[in-house]
Amino acid sequence: MELYDLIVIGGGPGGYLAAERAAQAGLKTLLFEKNSLGGVCLNEGCIPSKALLNSAKTYLHAKHASMYGVNTENVTINQAKVIERKRKVVKTLVSGVGAKMRQHKIVVVKEEATIDGKCVDGFKIKSASGTYTGKRLIIATGSSAAVPPIPGVKENLGDFICTNREVLELTRIPGEFTVIGGGVIGLEMAAYYAAVGSKVTVVEMLDHIAGPTEREISTRLQKELEAMGITFLLGHACEKVEPGKVYVKAPDGTQKVIEADKVLLSIGRRANYMNIGLETIGVKTDRSGIVTDAMCRTNVPDVYAIGDVNGHHMLAHTAYREAEVAVNTILGKKDYMRYHANPSVIYTMPEVASVGKTEEECKEKNIPYEVKKLSMMYSGRFVAENEGADGLCKILVHKENRTILGVHLIGAYAGEMIWGGAQMLETQFRVTDGRQIIFPHPTVSEIIREVLWEFPDK
Fold first, then answer.
1. Same fold, 3-144+270-339 and 153-267
2. For residue 48, is the peptide bond before it cis, meaning its omega torsion is within 30 degrees of 0?
């Protein structure tokens, strides 16, 4: 039986990058992936959704081109062509991941893998083709769409009701599109289908959208999306679903019926840690997923868990960093996760991007803070390129030591700028440190520097 230095279960962002980093360091590495390389992110999430949203942005730019002095007539969108391009993008990137695996001589087994206990040499992993042994194990099995016990949901799943998988394959634009859940995935798809012509309704149990996003930013996003024609039913609970109808309960207890051609179920995701054999080696789990420490170690020596399956932050870029931390730990290099500087982006129109503490968190934890904010209209490039639009940059700093606590953006290009905020948190930048950075001009990112100059000197 061939012995591997490392076996990785799951070929999503965390899994394939962990395999790549390990192989680069000279470890004999085996990667299991039961579906396509790239996992949910590349095949059914991050990348295909961005392909659709870019088509929507292109369509809207063309539709409103006259505002920029460009004459266009009879602008239409071809949904079948949008999906065709999305598939091409995915195929190209999946092929690229496969090429990386071959380049680094990583053995890829395209089968479902199950942990089958320990042996003298390490851990036994079985699949359809046999049993494999690894000295160390990284579990990167990802997550799946949560399916609540709402009457009619399970019965209509995959047909009338879509998850993140099916919604990215619709070749016809629904006339009436209902989204259950006002989180990231739900909002992005709501924005896409509203942009291309659907009548969109978002049902959310909370009194706000976008989950933990800075409340001022999420409120502003809601207004922007409402201007696109999206209807939000906040504080509403979905009670029942049947083909063509969604029954919801309003905050006052009354029932409403929403007509729908398609429904997107988007109430969150659940870690894929069941039925993979964790019990055979005694890996500890909780309701969120596999329990790990800051070095991505589980309670079992030489077993690591990265990405969605550990339940920390279900974001592809978090999984990338966790992959590197886990491999560095295996190699004996000191490294650990610092989740406080973990950025998040909602790729709606406009985009929302955040990193660090919100005002709500600061108040809850009694952290002394100051806040300053400016309209994106203070950015020359933003004004030049976004006719009739606006946005906001909001920064929180610690009132005593003047370190930056949080950066929150809404507006075009927000997702491309937020890494700078993450860097500031990561390196414990103070207000004066940020002011001394030379930002290129004209860029929208200059708004960050402008806001820093709004804080008083101390």
1. yes
2. no
Instruction: Give backbone dihedrals phi and psi of 184, rounded to 5 degrees, phi first.
Output: -60, -55
Q: What is the pLDDT of residue 1?
A: 67
Cβ atoms within 10 Å of 301's Cβ, excluding its own: 7
Distance CA 355, CA 358 (A): 9
Residues with a known catalytic role: 441
pLDDT in tens, 23-42: 999 999 999 999 999 999 99
pLDDT in tens, 271-304: 999 999 999 999 999 999 999 999 999 999 999 9
CATH of 350-452, picked from 3.30.390.30, 2.60.40.10, 3.90.180.10, 3.40.50.970, is 3.30.390.30
User: Which CATH number applies to 3-144+270-339?
Assistant: 3.50.50.60
Those residues of the chain that have pLDDT short of 50 are: none
Q: Are 175 and 258 in contact (CB under 8 A)?
A: no
**CA pair distance 166, 160, nearest whole angstrom:** 10
- The enclosing H or E element of 458 equals none
pTM: 0.96
Tell which residue, 263, 300, 249, 302, has the closest CA to residue 278. Answer: 300
The domain ranges of the chain are 3-144+270-339, 153-267, 350-452
Tokens 């990785």, residue located: 8
Length of the chain: 458
* Cα–Cα distance measured from residue 145 to residue 267, given in angstroms and rounded to the nearest whole number: 8
| Contact by Cβ (8 Å): 183, 49 | no
CA torsion 443→447→449→455, rounded to 10°? 170
CATH 3.20.20.140 fits 153-267, yes or no: no
